[in-house]
Write a structure and sequence with these properties.
The protein contains 1 helix and 36 strands. It is elongated, with a radius of gyration of 23 Å. 1% of the residues lie in helices and 41% in strands. The protein is an all-beta fold and 463 residues long. InterPro entries: 6-blade_b-propeller_TolB-like (IPR011042), Ricin_B-like_lectins (IPR035992), Ricin_B_lectin (IPR000772), SGL (IPR013658), SMP-30 (IPR005511), SMP-30/CGR1_Lactonase (IPR051262).
Length: 463
């Protein structure tokens, strides 16, 4: 089955609702409210095709979290707001359904109303009612209150984070994450796709063939159903990061010793960085993107396997912009996790074999300045940041996440399985931290990794 990524309402809709749009493909996620202040709600929170959409008292639950972005669709629970059967008749049922690109799933704005592109009719609360359970339909457009809708408030102009100030991100100095599901060989690289409200992550397998290269798949986890599905089989990926336009997932792809991007609508792969000055990378590991489109990545040699060294023994940090790869630093032994501060002015890199987390100032053109030490920490793996600028750094050997303030002060830690690899914030409010941790394989894909989660106090930065 071809997976199609639901984005959401056009820029015209966002503008009509008084929203701030950052770029043509900006997306917002939250409640859509109508008559009586009631919320657009997926009946029973069911993600099945054909589930009716209704009005209900606002609860903040996932069934009321709608994403609005650039292609005209409105999504919740990974499905599109849809006119049943593509009908153009008054009274046609409004439901959720697999996103399919038809006009029945495209919505535009007119004086606060949501007009379906296929029917030319407005989203309407049946019977001019605001009673819980009122079904939604399409009807000839009018000026009635039952056709007036308020979309989710947009993110501040500086990015997708709410305004501070923020308190301590941790509920206590030591917090234990809870396992969601185990039985995976080796999990890595989680990243949150807000439009579909799902988590993408890599499952790596044991090395095969003469070169002993590890194949891997990109999985998709849907929290609302608990389901894990395969998004891209044979992706060759390690670390993942959502693109700023929400249309692709960047992947550090050790299968081709490159950095790639997978289109979230089609799964099609394209190469972002193939080599540096004609020399193949070792095995790109983690990746992130700045607001200007600069992609930053680390290149240790963990998954180079039996392939020849083309980097003369160096493991490095690179950036790529406009197809041009530039070296940032080749003096860190086994650089691993990489992330940008929310304001984009600081790049953090974990030195897996050096016992340090490093930081670099980032200029307006995406270039970086002189490196400095941020914190001392051995065995670093993946990392992320939250909206307050706190840094979350995994250490592989003890299954922990160490949390630091932007000034480098240790705030506490999160515990998971025995060998933690990576992490990402997600959920409708982005306060759920997802972690990958477990026991590596002893051969024959015998590893036992799990996805963990924990609720924190500060929302996370999505990139």
């Amino acid at each position: 089955m071809t997976l199609r990524r639901g984005l959401a309402v056009t820029a015209a809709v966002l503008a009509a609702a008084g929203l701030t749009v950052t770029g043509a493909s900006a997306a917002t996620t939250g409640a859509i409210t109508g008559i009586g202040g009631k919320c657009l709600d997926v009946t029973g929170g069911a993600a099945a095709n054909g589930t009716r959409v209704q009005l209900w008292t606002c609860t903040g639950g996932g069934a009321q979290q709608w994403s609005a972005g650039a292609d005209g669709t409105i999504t919740a629970l990974g499905k599109c707001l849809d006119v049943a059967g593509g009908s153009t008749q008054n009274g046609s049922a409004v439901q959720i359904y697999d996103c399919n690109g038809t006009a029945a799933q495209r919505w535009t704005a007119d004086a606060g109303r949501l007009v379906n592109a296929g029917a030319g009719k407005c989203l309407d609360a049946t019977g001019v009612s605001s009673v819980d359970g009122t079904p939604l339909q399409t009807w000839s457009c009018s000026t009635g209150a039952n056709q007036q809708w308020v979309l989710p408030a947009s993110a501040p102009a500086g990015g997708p984070c709410p305004q501070g100030p923020f308190g301590n991100p941790l509920p206590s100095p030591v917090v234990a994450a809870t396992a969601i599901r185990d039985g995976f060989n080796f999990l890595e690289g989680p990243t949150w796709d807000a439009a579909s409200q799902t988590l993408l992550l890599t499952n790596m397998h044991d090395g095969t063939g003469a070169e002993n290269v590890q194949p891997s798949d990109i999985l998709r986890f849907t929290p609302s159903t608990g389901a894990f599905t395969t998004f891209v089989a044979g992706a060759g990926s390690n670390g993942l990061a959502l693109s700023r336009d929400g249309k692709s997932v960047y992947a550090a792809t050790h299968d081709q010793r490159s950095v790639s991007a997978y289109d979230l609508a089609t799964g099609q792969r394209r190469t972002i960085a193939a080599d540096y000055q004609g020399r193949l990378f070792n095995s790109p590991n983690d990746v992130t993107e700045g607001a200007d489109g600069t992609v930053y990545f680390t290149d240790p040699d963990f998954q180079r396997a039996n392939r020849p060294d083309r980097m003369s023994g160096k493991t490095s940090v690179f950036r790529v912009r406009g197809g041009v790869v530039t070296l940032i630093d080749d003096t860190i032994r086994e650089p691993n996790g990489i992330e940008l501060s929310p304001d984009g002015k600081t790049l953090y890199v974990g030195g897996n074999a050096t016992g340090k987390i490093y930081r670099y100032p980032v200029a307006a053109d995406g270039s970086t300045g002189a490196r400095s030490d941020f914190a001392s920490l051995a065995g670093t793996d993946g990392g992320t940041v939250d909206c307050a600028g706190n840094v979350y750094q995994v250490t592989y050997g003890d299954g922990k996440v160490h949390v630091f303030s932007p000034a480098g002060q240790a705030l506490g830690m999160i515990t998971a399985g025995p060998n933690a690899t990576n992490l990402a914030f997600g959920g409708p409010d982005r306060k759920t931290l997802y972690l990958t941790s477990g026991t590596p394989s002893g051969g024959g894909d015998s590893g036992n990794f799990a996805l963990y989660s924990v609720r924190l106090n500060v929302p996370g930065w999505p990139y």
